[in-house]
Structures are given as structure tokens and as C-alpha cells.
């Protein structure tokens, strides 16, 4: 493909050179081609990395599910003790069964989202992850915003519009858009700190999603500044990963532990 681009550009330049086009124009076109090739290489690398992460996350989920199944089976085989022990075993089995069901649901949801976002993952535009038990869509800030800005770029609007279309089709879910920055302080501009910048970026994404098919009642926004890094801030590469927008799939109430599950007794009133 790169050779074809070279042929196209050179084919366009030769007639122009023959007509007296200045050498500077030729050099500019060659530089533009080099930049395009570099961007394509960067996109391919990002796509490869995203695919590897998705595969690793799926393997982790499968192992978690298998471990829960084994523990459930093992506990079932031992549930032949006294009545008190049997009741405790039954309760534990039910807890494990619920945990297994939730793990299977998360794995199925994760696979479905990866499939829906496959083209954008392959293009290096986003990643789908599970972190702290939550499924989220992660977009790097350089696709969405210029440095220190909150206005969505054309490419950013296109990416968020695609994401909105997919997420809007997931019934019964709410989404929180979270803004994140690196730890470099803001020294100029209209924002006093990274807190304001991260929050305003999240709000801008929420507003755009609401204008492009998502029910605003399903959305919320939050800014975390540099408080939840996903990489070290001591390198350019790490800081780049930390500058991001994440769209978190919020859990339903039935997926949360009950009051008794966390040790809170029932009220008699």
C-alpha cells in the first residue's frame, strides 16, 4: 500500500515538475507522504497492542470462570457434613454460583463489546478493558482533543459518534464518561488545574453523545485529573497513556452485593 501511495504521489508530481513547479512543492509532497506513512505505521502498532490486550483479558476471564467452576464443584462434593456445616456450605455454594454467573456475564459482555468495536480497535482508536470488575472503553486524548483544549476535533467527533451508536444499542445500561490527565501541571490557559481540564473534557464528550443518539439520562461525567494513572508519569509514553477519556459501563443493581453479602444485618422494621 505504501508503494502504491509513493507511485500515486510521484505520478502526480512528474507532470507538475515538467511544467515548472518549484522543487519546494515536490519536497513538501514527499514530506507529507513520509508523515502519512509514519501515521499508518503508528496506527498498526496501536492496533496490534490493543488486540493483544483484548486477548490477554479474555484469557484472564476464562481462567477466572474455570476457577469458580472448580471451587463450586469441590464445595458440592464436601457438602455432606452436619446440618450446620451443610447450611453454611449451601450458602457458600450459592455465593459462588452467583459469582460464577456474574463472571460469565462479564465475559460475554466483554466479548460482545470487543466484537462490536473490532474495527475501531484495529484502527488504534480505542481499547476495551475490564478494570476493577468494570467494562470500559478507553480513548486516547490525542484523537479527541488538541493539547490543553476541550473542543472535540473532527476525528474525535467521528470516533465518539461511532462509540455512541454502539453503546446506545446496549439496553439497560448507564455510562459514566471520565476524563484523565498526566501529572504535568497546567501553567497557562483558561483552566486552573488538570481537575478542571479533565472534568470539562468529560462533559464535552457527554454533551456530544447526548446530541448523537444517546439518552442523556443514561450519561454522567467525572474528572479525575492525574489521580487514576494507568502508566507511570516518568516517561513520555506513560504520560501519553494517562491522558485519556474512558467510558465506563455502569453495573446494574442486581450485579452489586446485597446488604447481607457485605455483613449488614437485615432491619426488623
Briefly characterize the structure.
The protein has 269 residues and is an alpha+beta fold.
Keywords:
alpha+beta; 269 residues; 11% strand; 5-stranded mixed β-sheet; 60s Ribosomal Protein L30, Chain: A; 8 helices; 58% helix
Tell me about the largest β-sheet.
Answer: 5 strands, mixed
Number of helices: 8
Tally the structural domains.
2
Structural class: alpha+beta
Task: Report the C-alpha radius of gyration, rounded.
Answer: 25 Å
Mean pLDDT: 82
Termini separation: 72 Å
Question: Class of the largest domain in CATH?
Answer: Alpha Beta
- In what range is the share of β-strand residues? 5-15%
Q: Can you tell me the CATH topology of the largest domain?
A: 60s Ribosomal Protein L30, Chain: A
What general form does the structure show? elongated
| Named CATH architecture of the largest domain | 2-Layer Sandwich
The H-level CATH homologous superfamily of the largest domain, spelled out, is OmpA-like domain
What is the element string, with H for helices and E for strands?
Answer: HHHHEEHHEHEHE
* Helix content, binned percent: 55-70%
**How many β strands by DSSP?**
5
Order of strands across the main sheet: 1-2-5-3-4
Q: Are there runs of 5+ residues with pLDDT below 50, and where? A: 4-9, 258-269
Amino acid at each position: 500500500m505504501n508503494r502504491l501511495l509513493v507511485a500515486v504521489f510521484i505520478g502526480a508530481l512528474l507532470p507538475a515538475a515538467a511544467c515548472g513547479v518549484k522543487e519546494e512543492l515536490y519536497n513538501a509532497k514527499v514530506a507529507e507522504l513520509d508523515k502519512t506513512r509514519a501515521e499508518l505505521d503508528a496506527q498498526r502498532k496501536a492496533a496490534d497492542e490493543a488486540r493483544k490486550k483484548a486477548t490477554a483479558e479474555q484469557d484472564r476471564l476464562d481462567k477466572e470462570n474455570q476457577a469458580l467452576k472448580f471451587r463450586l464443584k469441590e464445595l458440592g462434593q464436601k457438602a455432606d457434613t452436619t446440618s450446620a456445616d451443610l447450611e453454611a456450605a449451601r450458602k457458600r455454594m450459592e455465593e459462588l454460583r452467583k459469582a460464577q454467573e456474574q463472571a460469565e456475564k462479564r465475559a460475554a459482555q466483554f466479548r460482545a463489546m470487543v466484537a462490536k468495536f473490532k474495527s475501531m480497535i484495529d484502527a488504534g482508536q480505542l481499547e476495551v478493558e475490564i478494570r476493577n470488575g468494570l467494562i470500559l472503553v478507553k480513548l486516547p486524548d490525542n484523537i479527541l482533543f488538541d493539547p490543553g483544549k476541550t473542543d472535540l476535533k473532527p476525528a474525535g467527533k467521528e470516533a465518539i459518534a461511532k462509540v455512541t451508536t454502539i453503546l446506545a444499542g446496549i439496553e439497560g445500561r448507564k455510562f459514566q464518561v471520565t476524563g484523565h490527565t498526566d501529572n504535568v501541571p497546567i501553567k497557562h490557559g483558561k483552566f486552573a488545574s488538570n481537575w478542571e481540564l479533565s472534568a470539562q473534557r468529560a462533559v464535552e464528550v457527554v454533551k456530544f453523545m447526548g446530541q448523537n443518539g444517546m439518552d442523556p439520562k443514561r450519561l454522567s461525567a467525572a474528572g479525575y485529573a492525574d489521580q487514576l494513572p494507568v502508566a507511570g508519569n516518568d516517561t513520555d509514553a506513560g504520560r501519553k497513556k494517562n491522558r485519556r477519556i474512558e467510558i465506563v459501563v455502569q453495573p446494574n443493581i442486581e450485579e452489586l452485593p446485597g446488604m447481607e453479602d457485605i455483613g449488614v444485618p437485615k432491619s426488623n422494621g
